[in-house]
Amino acid sequence: MQYAKIIGWGKCTPPATLSNEDISTVVDTTDEWISTRTGIKSRRVSHVGTGELATVAAKRALDCAGIAGEDIDLVLLATCTPSTLVANTASYVQQQIGATGAAACDVNAACSGFLYALQNATAQIRAGMVKRAVVIAAERMLWHVNWAKRDSAVLFGDGAGAVVLEASSEESGLLATKTGCDSEDREILHIRNFGTDIDKHDSSQPSDILFQGKDIFKRAVKGMSEACDDVLSQANLAFEDIDMLIPHQANLRIIQAIAKQLQLNDDKVMVNIQHYGNTSAATIPIALCEALEQGKIKPHSHIMSAAFGAGLTWAASYIKWGERVTPIIESKAELPECKQTGLEIMADAIKYCQ
Hints:
It catalyses: malonyl-[ACP] + acetyl-CoA + H(+) = 3-oxobutanoyl-[ACP] + CO2 + CoA. One of its GO terms (molecular function) is 3-oxoacyl-[acyl-carrier-protein] synthase activity. By secondary structure, the protein is an alpha/beta fold. It has two domains: 3-171, Peroxisomal Thiolase, Chain A, domain 1 (3-Layer(aba) Sandwich); 175-320, Peroxisomal Thiolase, Chain A, domain 1, CATH 3.40.47.10. The protein is built from twelve helices and 13 strands. The strands form four sheets. It has a five-stranded mixed β-sheet, sandwiched between helices. It has a four-stranded mixed β-sheet with strand order 8-13-12-11, sandwiched between helices. A two-stranded antiparallel ribbon has the order 2-3. The longest helix is centred in the middle third of the chain and has 23 residues, at 213-235. The model has no long low-confidence stretch (mean pLDDT 91).
């Protein structure tokens, strides 16, 4: 039996920040209002494109694995905020990491994108189609925010995370998964004024993230909990067998509800939404990297992950970790220097929306 072992991991979080206090100077809100409803205290703002965020995360993951880009057969980039649609942004990353000849493809399942892409890459490795893959999730969600609206302005942030997979006889990596889409109510979470359905000659309206919070909360908790139950059944595991839950970081209340459904104590749940906000597809790999940095993932840990996003896509995955929990090479990959604050980076966008 062949498996897709995770041998490298890396994240890229831009240096500029937007605190709740910063946002309160733009829209009518307060730190207390944001933090009590979402758990978010701050978020990162990117001064570079999605492709550059993805490239740094991928390079760090490759260094962690101790391999070069030329050793990669497949580059999958989960994103709903690509730098370019044609050519796909994954091809930019392929070029920048030196993965000459590797297949390159973008995957858009919104917040569920990383788990969708991880499933895809794992399946290709287990089928013998490729030997090594880098799976990345990168987003510039703040690019879509309408700064005239409080509900979307407070939630989102930018960032990227990546993992490297390698064919192995060791039973590790993604071992059970369930993905799906509840498309009947896809309109309760979407970005309007973006894509070929709009009038490209009318630029009077900015792109805008629209969602119905109460409905999304109910569907997110139900969808992710049921998917986790399905995955546990596939893997012949019980709630108590899970060492760490790494959920999509959309809202602290949703995370707490999922943890309660899975009967997991707080020390078994990875939460970092307070630092980054909702980075869509990138939340899970960023949280995975930080769980490793903080020593929360041990050799052979049983990890459950779950996500819910626009579409309405949903996913849950069981990952059995391997032996190594530290990088082989400490990466020197960095973003270009940023000399602006988060508010300065977003100044033009804020002015346009207002």
